[in-house]
Specification:
mainly alpha, 9 helices, 206 residues, globular
Length: 206
């Protein structure tokens, strides 16, 4: 269970991912390829939200570090997602410092991020209405803290405590940033006439 008794968010592939990582740590290159196949799409989408067109290069650097330090990882499939997101984020921030520009979707000291509880979440309802490219374009228009919260929650697929660990923030503050960002996205979708479901989460009316 996560913070506030919140169940840890899981993916159907987390069991497969955890098993692949364990085998990869024993030197199984095919297993590492499986882990890469499962994690890379979300990681690349997250990096596109941070560094734009340079995402592929940053992802390559991140995977080199992931491969190098794989033996140090200790956890399951969900934990591996968070660990790889942390590495990717560090590489993205290093890249942005070298470019001497602020990230379009996140700043190095973003103000907390992530996580909505409940089986039917705003982020799912909002993102189902968008193509990936359109979604990332909209996310980049959010304030930096809200943008990275949405990226970690939706694109990488982390739960609130895991994303908070990636960002070095408190889960409660992370939930607030994610909720505000997702609410803004829902409002912008409504303004453009894009189809969507009721954007409220189960706890919004409480």
């Amino acid at each position: 269970m996560g913070q506030r008794g919140e169940p840890r968010r899981t993916h159907a592939s987390d069991g497969e991912l955890g098993a692949a990582v364990a085998r990869a740590q024993q030197g199984d290159e095919d297993a590492f390829a499986v882990a890469y196949r499962i994690v890379h799409p979300g990681l690349l989408g997250y990096l596109r939200g941070l560094v734009g067109e340079d995402a592929e290069d940053v992802a390559s650097d991140a995977w080199l570090e992931i491969a190098r330090d794989l033996a140090r990882f200790d956890g399951d499939g969900a934990g591996f997602r968070g660990w790889t997101a942390t590495i990717a984020r560090h590489r993205a921030l290093d890249h942005l410092r070298r470019r001497r520009v602020r990230p379009r979707a996140a700043a190095p000291d973003e103000a907390d991020v992530l996580g909505l509880a409940g089986p039917l979440d705003t982020y799912e309802q909002v993102m189902e209405s968008l193509s990936t490219a359109h979604a990332l374009d909209l996310v980049r228009t959010l304030p930096p803290d809200q943008a990275e919260a949405v990226l970690l929650r939706v694109v990488v697929g982390l739960d609130a405590p895991a994303a908070a660990r990636v960002l070095g923030k408190r889960p409660g503050a992370v939930r607030t940033a994610a909720y505000r960002g997702l609410k803004r996205l829902a409002e912008r979708l409504a303004a453009t006439g894009a189809p969507r479901d009721d954007p409220r989460t189960p706890g919004e009316a409480e």
